[in-house]
């Protein structure tokens, strides 16, 4: 039987649909000092300040039942209340124990900028603040839009320092009381923590939540690790933005500063970028410390869900008093090793633990989007890229000392490192290199060798803040060599030569980074050998040095091209209507139907707001719902010609927007006229096939056999495509992955077989679905991802695998019935499991036993 297919491309999304610029959500800059108030009773404000009705009240006896969610954070609250609490635990931080004496925050913060409320001391360590709302005010998604906000954290946040530089993990929810009035509640949250390998874990209880002394029935988080906290409210009880943010300083009774065994903070913590672009972190030793743990805290200010908003990564656990993050970068090390095992020399990634600090798309990806937008693609992010809080999470580093028993620890002291991210390389900026070093700008290396080397001697690098930097290569001539490759080459497309050719290969490093690789040039253009390459490169570097001396780190590229991309972004108009298309649409909801109809009509930029809200509970539609609908639409409507789309979901001006970023798999064809023509050709071919193989009086089972037989006799399995794992062939004539295999001459893989079966089954009047999942490993097969079909026969959903019913030999057209209408529990299907991408999650159980779903 044919080999299974490689894993499909991972779903891609640019962020949650509620993401967007936080309006008024960030505390104004300029707060004086880093000092903290002491634990003494706070003095009266130095100005006439009445007690605010939103200030902290008395602890509550029991938790209310939520009725209207403000954000996905509410889901976390509900899950916890229902008993699924403890998925992951971590500690939000501060900058150590508060200062002693009579210091108070009234003297620390500027009363001209902030309205200072009465301090609240020694609260319950899981205390929840209650903010009553005026009559008729609801802090739902819709009301946030009405007041110009898109995020519940625009209402209130909690910080661990008086400069408001580090946000403590918090949930913001709305509840309705028995008398029908509404109130917001701010409580400590239990966000995501990851171990040294980057894996989510609940083994690290940095909040020491197990030691919480709470009046709450189910504590959802704990104020711990700072010693003092600043609750900042930006939106008033009337739903309007406050003229001055209102600040309430508070402490809790069971915090780390109350622990007589608490260790002192490490002093003299230094965080710097090394000469190779990694982080060096050092500190002074702490008496009583057994070891030290280094944490990276990241706050996504645009996210509303707790697990999306706050992450804490354990970067290192060490008994030393310094680390280089390169020594703990397992993800990058594994990728680099994989490339080297495949025979590709060099270092291609670094700073793997910092590659999730970007919010949305990198500048490199935006440059690619601009190329696609120039060819007609709508809805992509193309506006000028400026690193800010909408693009980069708030990133901070803290070192804590830990005692021998693991219980005693020092307070958190987070230092923001956002100003260092632009100096930390991640990987080569592939799209930027293609754009700026495209063949249309390449100097002729035969006639202008120095100009050619000036064009080649650069590396484009994506940095941790999302920007793209450029740096000159440093060539290692001592280790240069000659290779022989089978290539197609020539001065232009009209003068190409195919055959074996010698290449001069010169290793290089990228100064200011840990990246490296090899520069190859074609020997026929360099009759003087490697020495002539060296001479040209040396002269090129000398000229570049005079023109623009290089810096130690990659410097940001100049992406200015004279186009007003802000205007281009603003001019894009998403589809809002349900188009009339000449094809039957399979859909389980109006949202799926809306997406499918638009994709069949060639529209890839869609406003899904109304359909998404109608498909779920009001005001709770999210990215997952839309992605679920998109994948069902593409899986069950083969004429979309893309069974595995990539996408972006964004929220702009209160609307939820979907952009399908590949019109066909792997962006092989992006011309809508070509796609529409081929779509119609496939549809006509399907009608022709059905007219030939289906006759009156056939039972459903007979129709299934006829369709399976036609596919086995007329499709052939493309082993070359599957074994190479590369589908970059010309999709105008070849496409092994979709239903276009019925009219093209490129062979097929399992998705092409199953999509073809689905289309023909639809035209034959059968009830069928396209399904995907995994099959047990087979001898000689390198992947287990697979696609097949389910057909409703006499009220039961039976399995048909048209790929495995084809013997696989192109010269053998006989079909087998080994995988023909099998019961889902048939022994021949043992070990086969389903994923959920092919059908709406809520409907999966209508087709298969849920126990067959992959874990």
Automatic annotation (TrEMBL):
Matching InterPro entries: CAP/Cytokinesis_protein, Ig-like_fold, Papain-like_cys_pep_sf, Transglutaminase-like
Domain Transglutaminase-like residue range list: 743-804
Gene3D superfamilies per record: 3.10.620.30, Immunoglobulins
Region (Disordered): 1-60
Keywords: Membrane, Transmembrane, Transmembrane helix
Biased composition annotated in UniProt, kind: Low complexity: 20-31
Transmembrane residue ranges: 67-87
Name listed for the protein in its UniProt record: Transglutaminase domain-containing protein
Organism of origin: Thermophilibacter provencensis
Lineage, broadest ranks: Bacteria, Bacillati, Actinomycetota, Coriobacteriia, Coriobacteriales
């Amino acid at each position: 039987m044919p080999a299974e297919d490689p894993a499909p491309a991972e779903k891609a999304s640019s962020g949650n649909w509620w993401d967007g610029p936080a309006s008024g959500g960030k505390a104004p800059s300029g707060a004086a000092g880093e000092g903290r108030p002491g634990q003494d009773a706070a003095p009266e404000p130095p100005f006439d300040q009445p007690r605010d009705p939103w200030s902290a009240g008395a602890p509550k006896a029991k938790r209310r039942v939520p009725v209207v969610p403000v954000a996905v954070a509410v889901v976390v609250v509900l899950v916890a209340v229902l008993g699924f609490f403890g998925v992951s635990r971590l500690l939000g931080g501060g900058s150590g124990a508060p200062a002693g004496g009579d210091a108070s925050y009234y003297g620390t913060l500027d009363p001209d900028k902030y309205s200072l409320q009465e301090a609240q001391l020694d609260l319950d360590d899981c205390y929840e603040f209650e903010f009553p709302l005026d009559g008729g005010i609801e802090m739902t998604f819709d009301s946030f839009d009405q007041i110009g906000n898109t995020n519940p954290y625009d209402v209130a946040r909690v910080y661990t320092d008086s400069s408001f530089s580090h946000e403590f993990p918090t949930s913001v929810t709305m509840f309705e009381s028995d008398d029908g009035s509404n109130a917001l509640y701010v409580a400590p949250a239990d966000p995501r923590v990851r171990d040294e390998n980057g894996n989510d874990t609940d083994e690290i209880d940095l909040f020491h939540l197990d030691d919480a002394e709470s009046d709450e029935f189910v504590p959802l988080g704990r104020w711990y690790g700072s010693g003092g906290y600043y609750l900042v409210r930006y939106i008033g009880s009337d739903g309007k933005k406050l003229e001055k943010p209102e600040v309430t300083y508070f402490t809790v009774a069971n915090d780390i500063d109350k622990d007589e065994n608490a260790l002192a903070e490490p002093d003299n913590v230094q965080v710097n970028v090394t000469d190779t672009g990694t982080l060096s972190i050092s500190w002074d030793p702490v008496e009583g410390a057994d070891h030290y743990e280094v944490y990276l805290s990241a706050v996504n200010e645009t996210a509303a869900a707790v697990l999306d908003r706050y992450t804490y990564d354990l970067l290192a656990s060490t008994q030393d008093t310094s680390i280089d993050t390169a020594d703990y970068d397992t993800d990058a090390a594994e990728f680099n090793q994989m490339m080297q095992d495949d025979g590709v020399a060099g270092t291609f990634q670094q700073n793997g633990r910092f590659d999730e600090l970007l919010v949305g798309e990198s500048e490199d990806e935006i440059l690619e989007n601009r190329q696609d937008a120039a060819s007609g693609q709508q809805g992509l992010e193309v506006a000028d890229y400026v690193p800010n809080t909408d693009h980069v999470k708030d990133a901070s580093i803290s070192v804590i000392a830990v005692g021998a028993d693991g219980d005693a620890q020092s307070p958190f002291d987070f230092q923001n490192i956002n100003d260092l991210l632009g100096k930390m390389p991640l990987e080569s900026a592939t799209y930027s290199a293609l754009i700026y070093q495209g063949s249309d700008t390449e100097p002729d290396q035969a006639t202008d060798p120095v100009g050619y080397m000036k064009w080649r001697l650069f590396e484009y690098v994506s940095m941790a803040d999302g920007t793209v930097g450029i740096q000159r290569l440093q060539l290692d001539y001592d280790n240069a060599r000659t290779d022989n490759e089978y290539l197609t080459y020539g001065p232009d497309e009209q003068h190409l030569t195919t055959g074996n050719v010698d290449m001069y290969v010169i290793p290089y490093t990228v100064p200011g980074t840990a990246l490296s690789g090899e520069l190859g040039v074609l020997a026929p253009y360099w009759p003087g050998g490697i020495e002539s390459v060296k001479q040209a490169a040396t002269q090129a570097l000398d000229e570049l040095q005079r023109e623009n001396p290089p810096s130690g780190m990659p410097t940001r590229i100049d992406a200015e091209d004279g186009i007003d991309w802000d205007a281009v972004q603003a001019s894009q108009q998403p589809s809002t209507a349900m188009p009339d298309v000449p094809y039957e649409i399979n859909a389980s909801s109006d949202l799926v139907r809306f997406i499918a109809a638009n994709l069949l009509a060639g529209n890839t930029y869609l406003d899904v707001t109304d359909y998404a809200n109608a498909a779920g509970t009001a005001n709770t539609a999210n990215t997952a719902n839309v992605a679920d609908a998109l994948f069902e639409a593409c899986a069950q409507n083969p004429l979309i010609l893309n069974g595995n789309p990539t996408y972006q979901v964004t929220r702009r001006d209160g609307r939820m927007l979907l952009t399908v970023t590949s019109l066909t798999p792997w962006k092989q064809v992006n011309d809508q006229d070509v796609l529409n023509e081929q779509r119609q050709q496939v549809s006509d071919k399907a009608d022709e096939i059905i007219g030939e193989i289906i006759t009156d009086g056939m039972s459903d089972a007979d129709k299934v056999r006829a369709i399976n037989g036609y596919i086995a006799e007329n499709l052939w399995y493309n082993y070359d495509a599957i074994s190479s794992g590369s589908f970059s062939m010309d999709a105008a004539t070849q496409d092994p992955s979709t239903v276009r295999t019925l009219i093209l001459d490129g062979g097929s893989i399992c998705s092409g077989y199953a999509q073809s079966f689905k289309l023909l089954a639809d035209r034959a009047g059968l009830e069928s679905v396209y399904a995907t999942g995994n099959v047990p490993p087979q001898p000689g097969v390198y992947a287990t991802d697979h696609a097949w079909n389910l057909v409703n026969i006499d009220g039961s959903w039976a399995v048909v695998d048209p790929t495995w019913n084809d013997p696989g030999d192109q010269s053998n057209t006989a079909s087998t019935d080994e995988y023909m209408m099998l019961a889902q529990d048939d022994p021949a299907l043992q070990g086969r499991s389903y994923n959920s991408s092919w059908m709406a999650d809520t409907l999966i159980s209508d087709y298969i036993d849920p126990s067959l779903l992959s874990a």
